[in-house]
Design a protein that fits this description.
- By secondary structure, the protein is of the alpha/beta class.
- It has 2 domains: 132 residues, Nucleotidyltransferase, domain 5; 170 residues, 2-Layer Sandwich (Nucleotidyltransferase, domain 5), CATH 3.30.420.40.
- The protein contains 10 helices and 10 strands.
- Strand 9, helix 8 and strand 10 form a beta-alpha-beta unit.
- The mean pLDDT is 93.
């Protein structure tokens, strides 16, 4: 009987310190420790994040092992996010993972954060069949992928400037909302009028995205009023502004997927990343797939945000393919998926 695969996953790419344990592809624990201290700064402060990871990582890993009911000597591999992300934060996770793998004599697997998001679809049931399309949409990334097999994928389109989640946060700041603004805009938009203001939709040839224009459009719209009337507008029509802005962003996200379904004939579509939690995006994606007699796959909410379970799953796929990383591998804040 072959030895069970007991994999520890570690994620420290930004401001969440996370660890998870996967046994033969089944998730046994998933621990995430967030850093609320960034709220007062209106965004993630890299130095603060890396120092917090240093303080939290050992206890988070211990909690993950304890919840899984295993000891560290039972591990057969350690997977960690090697990029992209904040260099200081990445270095904390990668250094810990390499040292632990060396000390335990087990394989070390460096994982691209975006590959982790793709693998998050396999943490929920049922998983998507191959091939499938997948939209990665978060604060730092917006990419449309075609996935042919675990570890076999190609980029169909990506943002040429801001990511969708970045646009949410920047517009939220313009509107006076606290960071992170995306979830607040989503909640406010429920009671708003999606046709309140016709914010422009940027559509590019092919499958690429651009969200810098919508952000600027919101700013110009608000600045078209004098200070007193602008403040009154935001106070009285905040939900309407959020709803119409969000509708424009969602329409721009949906358009290339609609084209990709038509061009490829693939009707199984995954939606991953932090912005996949957006209710309006999920609703319109479901409508699109229903129209095309397809199926939408979205991870459970806990796996939409940054987490170590998805890193462990991506590492599990790599180990099954006989792949592992050299201990000389380093963190790469600008790492590309392809």
């Amino acid at each position: 009987m072959s030895k069970a695969s007991v994999l520890l996953g570690i994620e420290t790419s930004c401001d969440d310190t996370a660890a998870a344990v996967l046994i033969d592809g089944s998730l046994m624990s998933n621990v995430v420790s967030s850093q609320p201290q960034h709220i007062e700064f209106g965004g993630v402060v890299p130095e603060v994040a890396s120092r917090a990871h240093e303080k939290l990582l050992v206890s988070v890993v211990d909690d993950a092992l304890k919840q899984a009911g295993i000891g560290k000597n039972e591990l057969t591999g350690i997977a960690v996010t090697k990029g992209p992300g904040l260099i200081g934060s990445l270095m904390v996770g990668v250094s810990f993972a390499k040292a632990a793998a060396l000390g335990l004599g087990v394989p070390f697997i460096g994982v691209n954060h975006l590959e982790g998001h793709l693998a998050s679809l396999f943490l929920s049931n049922p998983p998507p069949p191959f091939p499938h399309l997948c939209l990665i949409v978060s604060g730092g990334h917006t990419q449309l992928m075609q996935i042919d097999a675990p570890g076999q994928f190609k980029v169909l389109g990506k943002t040429r400037d801001d990511a969708a989640g970045e646009a949410f946060d920047k517009v939220g700041k313009i509107l006076g909302l606290d960071y992170p603004a995306g979830p607040q805009i989503d909640r406010l938009a429920i009671a708003g009028n999606r046709s309140f203001h016709p914010f422009p939709r940027t559509r590019l040839k092919g499958y690429d995205y651009s969200f810098s224009g919508i952000k600027t459009s919101v700013l110009y719209y608000l600045n078209s009023f004098d200070e007193m009337h602008r403040e009154e507008l935001i106070r009285n029509s905040l939900a309407d502004i959020c709803a119409s802005f969000q509708e424009a962003v969602v329409d721009m996200l949906i358009s290339p997927i609609k084209k990709a379904i038509k061009d490829t004939g693939i009707r199984h579509v995954g939606l991953v990343g932090g912005v996949s939690a957006n209710l309006r995006l999920r609703t319109k994606m479901l409508e699109l797939l229903k129209q095309n007699k397809g199926q939408l796959y979205v991870p459970e909410m806990a796996y939409c945000m940054d987490n170590a379970a998805m890193i462990a799953m991506a590492g599990y796929f790599r180990l099954k393919n006989g792949e592992q990383s050299d201990l000389s591998e380093i963190a790469n804040p600008s790492l590309k998926l392809l």
